[in-house]
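Cross-check.
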Amino acid sequence: MKKQSLLMKFYLIVVFLLMYLPIFYLILFAFNRGDYMTSFTGFSLRHFATMFADTRLMGILLNTFIIALLSSLVATLVGTFGALGIYLLKRRNLQNVFLGLNNILMVSPDVIIGASFLILFTMAGLALGFGSVLIAHIAFSIPIVVLLVLPKLNEMDSALIRAAQDLGARPYQVLSYVILPYIWTGIMAGFFMTITYSLDDFAVTFFVTGNGFTTLSVEIYARARQGIDLSINALSALMFLVSLVLVIIYYFIANHKQKGSGKHKRATVNQQLGGGVQ
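Predicted model, tokenized:
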């Protein structure tokens, strides 16, 4: 048993090293005084200065964050109500059908999805640019939200909804005071997950960009074909920091919600015990 535990720890260490060493290697050379990743010649912030001085790159970075934020907000709203719709379906077979349709975008290759959106926008006469990228990002983000919110709904005791209805609560009150507080952590998980998916998406975005509009992943790909500039390393370090901040924010939100839920349960139990004593 002890030997298995050591093997598992060793396996986890190897996995994390394989995942994070390339990232840390890339970030390390963002602080390199030289211009190449062959050797570290000294500490310098000049590549960060070059990155921030590149107005085109900063504009693309802003576009990327705007797309990620807007698409995540819309996808979280639509995906949450989509999960509610699937949850409220009474027939199990019908639930599985809609859940399967939802999962198509999750399992389909990104190249196929991107090409499909390109054909759709071309047939509809929609100019490629900000609008096409936003619609595509919303579309592939919705299934992510559904898959993260639906398990929280399945965990919820349906007796809570029936009790609220028996007490005279209107549908919007049941939604506001019973359902949404319970699934809030799933909603926030979906929101932050879709932001990260939108920030690093390349394949779908590559097909639907146009009219001079592009996102960070497509721009990095275009620059990488001409030779890696260490300002890209600096930009990657910045993006890694942003992702880390998003994870920390979600952790604190989820942790705060769990503590608040625990306090509420204890208060309810104490109130019931107090009522029983009286």
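Residues 230-277 form the longest helix (48 residues). The chain has a mean pLDDT of 83. Passed to J.P. for a second look.
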